[in-house]
Design brief:
By secondary structure, the protein is an alpha+beta fold. The N and C termini lie far apart (46 Å).
């Protein structure tokens, strides 16, 4: 499954839309079209890995074992 970025226009301004999960560009394009979205790019595995590292780092910092009294 691949992840695709989308956008949409509202009152003349462009906004980032939801990500679409699909197997191919064609499937993602059909999903985007059916929801009134514009398909932008496929998010690469490198980006996914970098994002996962950031999320892991945030999770580690949130779960340190400090006790506050």
């Amino acid at each position: 499954m691949k992840i695709f970025s989308t956008s949409f226009f509202l009152d003349g301004d462009e906004y980032e839309g939801p990500n679409i999960h699909a197997d191919t560009w064609m499937n993602a394009r059909e999903l985007a079209k059916s929801h009134g979205l514009i398909l932008q790019v496929e998010l690469t595995k490198e980006f996914e890995q970098e994002l996962q590292e950031i999320m892991d780092d945030l999770f580690i910092h949130k779960t340190d074992n400090r006790v506050l009294h």
